[in-house]
Amino acid sequence: MARKFAEITFTASVKAAQEKYGSRQSNQGFEVMETGPDLISSVEAEFIHARDGFYQATANAEGWPYVQFRGGPKGFLRVIDQQTLGYADFRGNVQYLSVGNIGENDRIALILMDYANRRRLKIWARASIVEYDDNPELISKLEIPTYRARVERGIILKVEAFDWNCPQHITPRFTEDEINQLITPMQQRIDELENNRKTNTQTKSLGWGELKIEVTGIRQLTPDVRAYEFRRPDRSDLPAVSAGSHLTIPVEMTDGQIVDRTYSVANNPNRRDIYEIAVLKEKDGRGGSKAVHDKLQLGSILNIDLPKNTFPLHEEKRPTILIAGGIGITPIKSMAQELRRRRHRFELHYAARSRRHMAYRNKLELELGNDLHLYPLDEDKMLDIQSLLKNAQKETEFYICGPQGLITAFVDMAETIGFPKEQIHYELFKNSTNTEHNTAFDIYLEKSDKYLHVAEDQSILDAMLDSGLQPQFGCTTGGCGQCAVKVSQGEIDHRDLALSDQQKEKENLICICVSRAKSKQLVLDA
Fold first, then answer.
1. Are residues 347 and 322 in contact, defined by beta-carbon separation less than 8 angstroms?
2. Nearest to 362 by CA among 351, 346, 374
């Protein structure tokens, strides 16, 4: 704290106010410090030289204060020595209020602001006016050769005291130069990405589907979920999608192999200009999501098949309850937007680790209001499946997307309470089966006349694809049943949620994307 600060500012009335409001004791220490004018150190000098403006206060003969902003190029307020400041009074000041006040009362106060770093310096001084003709040598020290403005006089300030204030209540603001310094690295990165986009557009595209799309937007939704926006390269309308649809996109793995991965369409289904997916970067996944995060860039070109929908929303005007767990929000968001457009009754129940891990939360809160119910686990808010089902109307349609544990618990509870299976619709957002205790096995494909080995960390579907076969499949998570194949021999370890008991026990079908063998070998009609 400045040494003479208290002597100048702690008048009798100020001390009385400090006593009244309880700060007198904490301020008394400043009054017993060494007296005398404060000396400007290198710290204050550096701060002063970096400013391009300041506020100054003078008072007229009637005691009225006049506060003025003085601006110029950086450093126009000069430090002449440890007790003296000065600045040039440029032509254009025609009212002469400050100059006139100084002629009657030489006391002056300055406030210098550094908004970007939330710092401020207050200076108390005695001011004098130096006319150009009286001391041209001194005026020359205040001139700025690169600043085109005529100096009419100089204002010299003999510093009595100064005080650095705390940053409380200073709102950060930035000059044009400061903003340019902040955004220059980002602009350089944008230029780099744009160059990459142009290179990718000209030399490389992925996939062999009939629909060509371009990555035109990337947003980070949560710490580990990223949204990717696609448009046609010519920006014409995309094929229409319905709520619950998905895209199968080609992904380049770290070893250069191109694989297909399926992601729900998350955007409002009524838009025709874009498709949007949201991809969770899975640490323990098969590498596809990591490859998407690492390699899919603005300008990337993909050739994909037309969107498909294995998780369609009903058309009837019945009450609907939507349930999402984690990244399972992607098709559920689209359904909520479609139901809102139709003006149908619905609720959305969304569970995740925390609010910051809830993709699209802010948008959903704005659009859905009281129809949205959030269950962040770190706030000890849990989705009560039993109560939700018991309080639902009998004709309610349920749509669930999330991890297998959530879906299994909901399906089991719905069956216990008595809801028909036809009213329970679900989709897994990932293969949640624990592979830790998987065992390898062999398969024989009767129609293809091929023997294949299925490794512990490999699905039957992956083994067939790796061998060059092209089996039919959809979600790859055991939720749609498109990959179901008849088993002629062997014992099945069913891990899907798509097949009915009839299909499993009587028709002997297996979902090759997730299910495995309990026996050492399976014989498939494929």
1. yes
2. 374
Read out DSSP for 305-364?
PPPB-SSPPP-S---EEEEEEGGGHHHHHHHHHHHHHHT--EEEEEEES-GGG-TTHHHH
Report the candidate in 32, 79, 174 with the shortest Cα–Cα distance to residue 117.
174
Q: Which of 357, 354, 402 is nearest to 377 (CA)?
A: 354
**What H or E segment, with its residue span, contains residue 250?**
strand 246-252
Q: Cα(414)–Cα(421) distance, rounded to whole angstroms?
A: 8
φ, ψ for residue 17 (rounded to 5)?
-65, -40
Task: Report the alpha-carbon distance of residue 492 to residue 431 in Å, rounded.
Answer: 17
CA 434 to chain centre: 31
β-strands 320-325, 397-402 pairing: parallel
Residue owning tokens 């990959």: 483
- Count of alpha carbons within 13 Å of 422, Cβ hemisphere only? 3
Longest dimension (CA), the chain: 111
465-487: b or e for each residue (b if 16 or more CB lie within 10 Å)?
Answer: eeeeeebebbbbbbbbbbbbbeb
Backbone angles phi, psi at 171, to 5 degrees: -80, 125
SS3 of residue 385 by DSSP = helix
Residue 308 CB coordination number (10 Å):
18
**Which uninterrupted H or E stretch holds 27?**
helix 24-27
The pLDDT profile of the chain, 526 residues, written as one tens digit per residue, is 445 777 888 888 988 998 898 888 877 777 766 655 678 999 999 999 999 999 999 999 899 999 999 988 889 999 999 999 999 887 666 678 998 999 999 999 999 999 988 899 999 999 999 987 888 888 888 887 777 666 778 899 999 999 988 777 888 888 888 888 888 888 888 888 777 666 655 547 899 999 999 999 999 999 999 999 999 999 999 999 999 999 999 999 888 888 888 899 999 999 999 999 999 998 776 678 999 999 899 999 999 999 999 899 999 999 999 999 999 999 999 999 999 999 999 999 999 999 999 999 999 999 999 999 999 999 999 999 999 999 999 999 999 999 888 998 999 999 999 999 999 999 876 544 455 578 999 999 999 999 999 998 889 998 998 888 889 876 677 777 889 999 999 999 998 877 888 899 889 999 998 899 999 999 999 9
pTM beyond 0.70, yes or no: no
Structure tokens that stand for 348 in this block: 């959305």
